[in-house]
Design a protein that fits this description.
The chain has about 900 residues and is of the alpha+beta class. Among the domains are: about 220 residues, Methylamine Dehydrogenase, Chain H (7 Propeller); about 130 residues, 7 Propeller (Methylamine Dehydrogenase, Chain H); about 140 residues, no CATH class; about 90 residues, no CATH class. It is built from 23 helices and 36 strands.
Length: about 900
């Protein structure tokens, strides 16, 4: 059964919107946005291929086609024919000033020309490869298209010519270079980087690299069966690809003994081509297959160890279903654009989109790559405020000095505007005050800098390691017309617990009244009333509720109702009053009002309803338990509540855990929920030095936060490392850089000298430790130190700025200026330098070294320094 032509496709190398197809004839198309009047194909959603011209001069004889790589002459083609001739033709453009159209290159013996290649650099050179062996002829002929026609052929009798239509005036028989005598050539290619380098596959077992300036022998030879479809990489002078049946090989000309790597395909390979606009992207078309395979060999390694995949594979399917392709071609200039054609002639213009590499900027912007372009933008998420992101919050807080306000730790919480963090830092501030006042001391084996209630209850803060036995005390109610008493517990440990809860008062002194007054000023009337009630002061509770109800800012009529209900309190649990209070307790919303009624109607053996009121502050619940629960009940309740707080990651639980191992577990859970490593790091510093400073989780949080500060470049705004070294001296890095003497090689720092040598040095020069910055000679060999390039005074001497380098504030006392002004500083390239202050002033106005005859551009070699210098100059 007869079959139709198998179409091939080529892009024009010089006209970006032209391409041709060839099978039986040559057809030229132009890609346009609008369909033309003649024959047209829609090749993409927005593009049409309009027919321009058809060349049928060599119909049925074409074997291969190569497009001239330059734009002049326009649309010049080399056509290899089945009987061996190579013809230069075009699509009938007139005139032909170069006289190339119609020129024919004829080998000695008629053999099929199966491959053509133009030299991309020296474009007048055309190579032709022949697949049939001839004992007296060469398999590769390189023609110079500008060569003169053969005079011998023009005088040859008509019968001796290969074909009758060849004009002798356009025939060339003498090739410029001949390669491969009595051999075969299966594929060939020119190097894109060297006009004289020519690569070919020969005899089905060699790939040979020739220098056409010396064609007698090849420069390199590789023994392989992969001699088909040789393609040189336009982006790499040393890389090429070839195939054999279903095996793809990548070669490096620098190590040509064996391929860099080999890929085995399931199907036979029909065509391969390197992308001209994208480095390392190789397209492979399997025979009778609906997809094109793309191999990204950008990350290929040429050593024996591959630390990552050498090839990244993906596929492109231009046509729906399983429609196969016969050919494809990369666009020479448009990035990742290619054209494909099926055996039936259906054309598609497609763009191979790159994988998008997405990255977050530390400044909350997004950056991604799209081919060779780098795009940047800010994410806009519907109904989401970017300011609520934890990274934005941490960066803002770091700039404001969050966590570094050591005089009053509670000020750190006020910077956040987060009630949970405000309570956390307020508690840390209270514990710090208690320690400074001596109210909390460690007498046990383990030193706990920031203890929690659990540590007190378990006896970790006393010498015995056991919680002290509490004393039961019967306390009379205040404000009742009839006598009523309740049992409360007292001990030294319970007093510590109340202090940690912020209840720094006794029910019998005036400090309670002051605490309640502060709560009323903050309009926390319900809490104030509950605390008064928990201290058995019923009349004061009712008075607070009345004031709250009459307050203009927080007036609530419910408070009057609650006050009225409390005024009828009775100790009999079986009365109508208790029944009505139970009903009222379920309808109230404020947790403290609910807790008050639960306290009054509950029996004295449990107070479960009060202690389970989760909306009450933890410190108030724990303080209530400390008043009314037995030793065993208090220990059990504290243990259960601690576990609950840790599981929830609730920072209120820091009251229970303190900055101990349990506290680390609590902070870990909080970080898991919020990602707030900033608070975790800064809070844990309050416990340094201690055992928890060696915990791997704490070290990880600190490292993460330091990394964030580095990415944000907040080296000056956030003095985190300075504060950390103050909290833990062991975290200070050891001195790593020393300035050594040019003569003896020893450190010039006087504090590096020890023993008698130090004493002799100080005595000799008559200086003390306080004045060691005035030393201007080496303490080892007593040779003078180098001079400053600007003031010419020996380094190490306190320097006053020269007249041209006065500080902005001329009233500033030079003697009180920071010692950094006197530090050694020098260029890492030319080794010239001087006092830091003088160098800083010099480079605010200059970029060149201040030393005469030195042409070093010191400032331009420092990116950060350049920005700093420019900023100061503009200001």
């Amino acid at each position: 059964m007869a079959t139709g032509p198998r179409y091939e496709v080529l892009w024009s190398p010089s006209q970006p919107e032209k391409f041709l197809t060839f099978g039986n004839d040559l057809t030229l198309y132009k890609v346009e946005d609008q369909p033309g009047k003649a024959q047209v194909q829609k090749i993409s959603d927005e593009k049409f291929a309009n027919l321009v011209s058809i060349n049928a001069d060599n119909q049925y004889n074409m074997k291969c086609v190569a497009w001239y790589p330059k734009g002049d002459p326009e649309d010049l083609l080399a056509v290899g024919l089945t009987h061996g001739r190579v013809v230069l033709t075009n699509f009938g453009q007139e005139p032909d000033p170069h006289g190339l159209v119609g020129k024919t290159f004829v080998p000695k013996h008629g053999r099929t020309c199966n491959s053509l290649a133009w030299n991309p650099i020296d474009s007048n050179l055309l190579a032709a490869g022949f697949g049939e062996k001839s004992r007296t002829d060469y398999s590769i002929l390189i023609w110079d298209i500008n060569a003169k026609p053969s005079a011998e052929l023009s005088s040859t009798p008509e019968r001796n010519r290969t074909t009758s239509y060849i004009d002798s005036s356009f025939t060339v028989t003498k090739a410029m270079t001949e390669l491969g005598l009595s051999e075969t050539s299966t594929s060939l290619a020119w190097s894109y980087h060297n006009a004289a380098t020519f690569i070919t596959g020969m005899n089905n077992k060699f790939i040979r690299v020739f220098d056409i300036r010396d064609p007698t022998r090849p420069m390199k030879v590789a023994l392989t069966k992969a001699v088909y479809g040789i393609s040189a990489d336009p982006h790499s002078a040393h890389r090429l690809a070839s195939y054999c049946e279903g095996q793809l090989t990548i070669w490096d000309l620098r190590n040509f003994d064996k391929p860099v790597f080999t890929i085995n395909e399931k199907c036979q390979i029909n065509r391969l081509s390197w992308c001209p606009t994208r480095m390392g992207l190789l397209a492979v078309l399997p025979k009778d297959h609906p997809t094109i395979k793309l191999y990204d060999v950008q990350h290929a390694t040429f050593s024996g160890e591959d630390v990552e995949p050498a090839v990244i594979e993906r596929t492109v399917q231009p046509y729906p279903g399983n429609q196969t392709m016969s050919s494809f071609a990369w666009h020479p200039t448009d990035e990742n654009r290619m054209i494909t054609i099926t055996p039936s002639g259906i054309i598609k213009d497609i763009t191979v989109f790159e994988r998008i590499a997405l990255a977050w900027s530390p400044h909350t912007s997004v950056i991604w790559s799209c081919g060779k372009k780098l795009l940047q933008g800010s994410p806009e998420i519907p109904n989401v405020n970017v300011e609520d992101d934890i990274s934005i919050k941490m960066k803002r807080r770091a700039k404001e000095g969050y966590g570094l306000k050591t005089d009053q730790l509670s000020d750190n919480g006020e910077l956040t505007g987060d009630p949970q963090l405000e309570a956390l830092w307020s508690w840390l501030c209270d514990v710090k005050t208690l320690r400074e006042e001596g109210k909390i001391r460690n007498s046990g084996k383990n030193t706990i800098k920031m203890p929690g209630v659990k540590s007190v209850v378990q006896g970790e803060l006393n010498g015995t390691g056991v919680c002290m036995r509490s004393e039961e005390k019967v306390v009379e109610w205040e404000g009742l017309d009839w006598p009523l008493s309740s049992v409360m517990y007292k001990s030294e440990d319970r007093t510590r617990t109340l202090q940690l809860c912020g209840w720094n008062f006794s029910r019998d002194d005036q400090s309670l009244d002051g605490f309640l007054k502060e709560l009323e000023e903050d309009e926390e009337y319900e809490r104030a009333a509950a605390i008064a009630l928990f201290n058995l002061k019923l009349r004061k509770t009712i008075e607070i509720l009345k004031r709250g109800a009459s307050s203009s800012n927080a007036g609530d009529l419910n408070l009057n109702v609650v006050a009225m209900a409390l005024s009828g309190y009775t100790d009999d649990k079986n009365t109508l009053w208790c029944e009505m209070c139970s009903s009222l307790c379920q309808k109230l919303h404020n947790p403290y009002l609910k807790a008050m009624f639960a306290f009054l109607i509950s029996n004295n053996d449990g107070y479960t309803l009060v202690l389970s009121e989760s909306e009450m502050k933890v410190q108030d619940r724990v303080a209530f338990a400390c008043h009314f629960l037995s030793d065993a009940g208090l220990a059990q309740y504290v243990g259960e509540l601690t576990k609950e707080m840790i599981n929830d990651g609730n920072l209120q639980g820091i009251l229970l855990t303190g900055l101990t191992k349990d506290g680390v577990d609590l902070i870990e859970r909080y970080v898991d929920k919020s990602s707030d490593v900033q608070t975790a790091s800064l809070v844990m510093l309050q416990a340094f030095p201690s055992e928890i400073s060696k915990d791997s989780r704490v070290e990880y949080w600190i490292d993460c936060y330091r990394s964030l500060l580095d990415r944000w470049r907040l080296w000056h705004e956030s003095k985190f490392d300075v504060y950390r070294s103050q909290c833990d001296a062991q975290s200070r890095p050891a001195q790593q850089v020393f300035i050594s003497c040019n003569f003896c090689g020893k450190s010039i720092a006087s504090n590096m000298i020890t023993g008698t040598a130090r004493a002799r040095f100080m005595t000799t020069f008559g200086v003390g430790i306080a004045n060691k910055s005035k030393i201007n000679s080496c303490p080892g060999c007593r040779k003078p130190l180098p001079r400053c390039a600007l003031c010419l005074i020996n380094m190490g001497t306190p320097s006053a700025p020269p007249p041209t380098c006065k500080p902005k504030d001329e009233t500033e006392d030079v003697g009180k200026r920071s010692q950094f002004n006197n530090w050694f500083t020098w260029c890492q390239t030319c080794r010239h330098g001087g006092h830091a202050f003088h160098m800083t002033q010099w480079f605010t106005k200059h970029t060149e070294c201040p030393v005469t005859s030195c042409k070093c551009k010191c400032m331009t070699m420092d990116g950060i320094g350049t920005v700093t210098s420019t900023t100061k100059t503009e200001s």
